[in-house]
Amino acid sequence: MVEIKTDAALEAMREAGRVVAHALAAVRDAAAVGVGLDELDGVARDVLDKAGARSPFLGYHPSFAPAPFPAVICASVNDAIVHGIPDGYRLRDGDLVSIDCGAVLDGWTGDAAISFVVGTADPADEALIDSTRQALEAGIAAATVGNRIGDISHAIGGVARAARRGMPADFGGHGIGRRMHEEPHVPNSGLPGRGYRLRHGLVLAIEPMLIAGGRDDYRADPDGWTLRTTDGSRAAHVEHTVAITDDGPRILTLP
Question: Among 135, 216, 238, 245, which residue carries the largest CB count within 10 Å?
Fold first, then answer.
């Protein structure tokens, strides 16, 4: 069932989103050559703890996963698309890193992701991240009262396909509120004018995931969580929690 939030709930979600933004900024600042992914997870944990928030990722155990997720961030490097488990891997010059983070504060959830390059950036990686951000911006711009989910999907997919990027099939955004994953599902490609009609108070996590090589398939690591490109090409992932309002889309996961 799709839950429509009150204006008071939107304000509460804004505070949760602010915590997420601060955690992502702290992780980005800490990311450098030689830093371990587990250390970045520790940085995010500290931000959540100081804010009095908890992680919706830690201990999350969907049916497809062999074990609960063991961290507060997803850290996906290079050919990892999403859901990477932060381990002892130490960042190298030129790594493309995607960090996904969530926070639950006073019972309400925020969820966002960023992608960046550590050290010296390959122009191809910068272009991939830029097209992923553009896809997110297009999706957010389409998140207006009276539009439908398919309009968001079409906007994201249009940018991705124009840039000749792939997108992992079956993965996309979602409703968000008291729980991290709520209805409706928000595909990253689709037909305009289709799906649930957007109303004031609907909150969505919009999250394009783009693959440099242009393919839409992926494979899972033995850990059951990490998804990787099948051709070894790099991937980027960006996300914001967005409220649909009568005044236009409102991004809740800004600092």
Answer: 135
- The span from the CA of 71 to the CA of 86, in Å, is 7
Which secondary-structure segment (H or E) carries 73? strand 73-77
CB atoms within 10 A of CB 187: 22
In single-letter form, the type of residue at position 97 comes to V
CB atoms within 10 A of CB 15: 16
CA distances from 205 to 20, 33, 60, 136, 246 (A): 13, 30, 17, 10, 18
Q: Which two tokens stand for residue 220?
A: 């899972």
Q: What residue ranges do the domains of the chain occupy?
A: 7-251
Taking only the tens place, the pLDDT of each residue in 210-225 is: 999 999 999 999 999 9
Say whether 89 sits in a helix, a strand or coil: coil
Phi, psi of 19, rounded to the nearest 5 degrees: -60, -45
Q: What is the pLDDT of residues 128-161, one digit of tens each?
A: 999 999 999 999 999 999 999 999 999 999 999 9
Exposed e or buried b per residue across 226-237, where buried means at least 16 C-beta atoms within 10 angstroms of its C-beta: bbbbeeebbbbb
